[in-house]
Each structure stands twice: as structure tokens, then as C-alpha cells.
Amino acid sequence: MKSFRDKRRDNRPQPARSEQARPRDAFAAGRQQAAPAKRRETKQTDRQEPKPARRVLARREGLLPAERLPLILEVAPNADYALLDSGAGEKLEQYGPYRIVRPEGQAIWQRALPAQEWEHADAIFTGDTDEEGIGRWRFPKAPLGETWPMKHDGIDYLGRFTSFRHVGVFPEQASHWDHMAGLIAAAKRPVKVLNLFGYTGLASLVAARAGAEVTHVDASKKAIGWARENQEMAGLADKPIRWIVEDAVKFAEREERRGSRYDIVLFDPPAYGRGPKGEVWQLFEDLPGLADLCRSILTPKPLAVILTAYSIRASFFAVHALMRDTFAGMGGTVESGELIIREKSAGRALSTSLFSRWVA
Ligand SMILES: C[S@@+](CC[C@H](N)C(=O)[O-])C[C@H]1O[C@@H](n2cnc3c(N)ncnc32)[C@H](O)[C@@H]1O
Predict the structure, then answer these.
(1) Domains of the chain
(2) 229-251 residue pLDDT tens
(3) What pLDDT does 23 receive?
(4) Which end of the chain is more exposed for a tag (fewer CB within 10 A), N or C?
(5) pTM of the predicted model, to two decimals?
(6) Of all residues in the chain, what percent carry a pLDDT higher than 70?
(7) How many helices (H) and strands (E) does the chain have?
(8) In this structure, are residues 62 and 81 in contact, taking their beta carbons and an 8 Å threshold?
(9) Which residues pair with 152 in a beta bridge?
């Protein structure tokens, strides 16, 4: 799941490349390009899998949905997770029992906590080796395993030291999870949720616990394996979650053809990614078509469509305009802004991503 792109970025702890600096993409971008051999494989598959014709888009008719912006959704320090401090191109976070230091391109300010607080970290992402697995982490106190037990709001799952600096969860997404769980509970009827680009599945677990029937789609077999492990770990194995390794666009197209419909769609695409057969995902080219597809696979009484975008050269006004146009004629409200994490030390807001959501 690593790519040479990842390595280039990871080797530079202070990327400070404004539009590309948010690190999350490193996971999704070129997930099949870990080693030269794999890169060759991907190129071959590319040739076998011609890009399908792009969806023909026409502007949707009808009144634009109401709007609410800017909406800044904040995750505050809590018992499961806290951004302890940030600065000098890095962040210090508490994930359950572990204190972790990782690069953070947005943290262009100075650290607020003294050096010894940072030195007491359990794990530091160094990115200084090309080895697979957890070789790119340094464990100053004692060697740690690849995974460790974590909780989100009572849901058990595994934190994970990945070679591309992520830890198996994006805590800022908790704002969306809570909102979605509230919609599912308030609906008081069976709710179907589609989670595209679902990664390790926290959103799917939250939706399932809230009572929804969930379809989780990700291009990475490894990520789906991690998500299934999390389902076991959470004690939610009996909940209805379909785990699907598939290209997100292809899956949504198939659901449209088959007439399968959803009440809530989450999509959290990377700036650049690949489907299991080498299908290329490029956010700026493919997002309008996928947003339109998401609209057409909604039930007659849908609840919400939630989009998050990381690492793109755009303002939330851009995704807001796209979502409002896409949901014209459907009523409801489009709310857009940023997901932020509030720092415990000096209270600064660390911006992680843009989002836009249509809520019925
Ligand atoms: C940034 S993660 C999403 C994180 C997740 N929503 C969460 O909050 O935990 C992006 C995911 O997109 C997947 N991905 C990349 N390209 C894809 C594609 N073409 N189709 C489906 N999934 C893709 C990656 O494997 C990765 O798991």
C-alpha cells in the first residue's frame, strides 16, 4: 500500500506544501505501488482495464437546497483520543494508551509543550526506512506490536502503526460519525448506509451499532481485512455489514443499474487512488460524476450524503457549490466547512479536511 510518492513525502517531516500537505492521501494514493514489482503489476493491469467512459453530467433542475456555511466541526480532546500539542511541522497525539508523534504539515506554529513532553512519546514516525510493516516507526521506550486496543465512544477497534504514517483511524471523522448515528436513530425505521472509500471501517461500525444495514466498499483488500478485524474486536460481528473490495465508482454504477438504493451515503475519497483492477481515481476529474451517482442511488426518503475531501487545492466553497448543484430539487440543506481537531495544550485548531454534506 506504499508508493514511492508516500516515501518521498514521509521522508520529509515538514512538507509545508499547502495544497498537498495533509498526509492522509499518502495511504490511498497509489496503494498498489509498494515495490517496483508491484508497480509493474499495476501498469499491466492499467493496460488491461481501459478507463470507462466518464458519466455524462447535466445540471440538475429545481431549487438549490438551503445552505449553511461555514460550518466548522470540531473534535475536542477526549478519553479515547487527544491532540496533545502541535508545532514545528509535527503533532503529538494520545491514542488510547500511546503517545504518538507524527509529521503534520499544517502545524507551522511553535510547540506549546516543553520538549520533555514530546520526548516521552511511545512511538515516533520517522519514515526513514523503506521497509514494509512498522519499520518506519521508532519506539523510544519499548518495542511495540503493530496493533493496539483502541476505543471510540465505546466501540473497540485496533490502532495500527502503518508504514505510511497513519494509525488506522482519522479521529476528526468522529464529528460525521456522531451526526450520522443521530440521523439513523431519529429515523426510527430501517436505514441503509453505503460507505465508499471506507478504509478500516469505523464509520461502518458506528452506523451498524446505531441500527443501520451497512455496505462498506474499499479498493484495498488489506484495509477490508483490517475493517473486518475491527468488527470482531467491537463485538459487532452479528451486525449486518457487507464488506466489498471494489472500485468505488464501479460499485456505485452497478448499484444504480441494479436499482439498489441507500438512505445515507458517505464518501471520503482520496485526491488520487486506484481501484483493485488499477482503475484510476482522480478527485477533480471524478468527484462530480460520483456525487451525481450518489444522488441517483438514494431511496425515495433519503437522510444524508456526506462528502469529505483531504489534500485538495480547493476551498470548501467549491465542494459546497458542487453538492448544492448536485442536490438541486431535493430540498434539504447543504452544510459545508472544515473538520478540525482542537489541541489540548494551547487550544489551537488543526484543520484536517474539507467537507460538504446534504441533509434531507
Ligand atoms: C483516506 S481513506 C478513507 C478513510 C475512512 N473514510 C475513515 O474515515 O476512516 C481512503 C480509502 O480509499 C480507498 N481507495 C482509494 N482509491 C479507491 C477506489 N478507486 N475505490 C475504492 N476505494 C479506494 C483506500 O484504499 C483507502 O482505504
Answers:
(1) 51-74+168-359 (3.40.50.150), 79-160 (2.60.40.1180)
(2) 999 999 999 999 999 999 999 99
(3) 41
(4) C
(5) 0.87
(6) 84
(7) 10, 17
(8) no
(9) 155
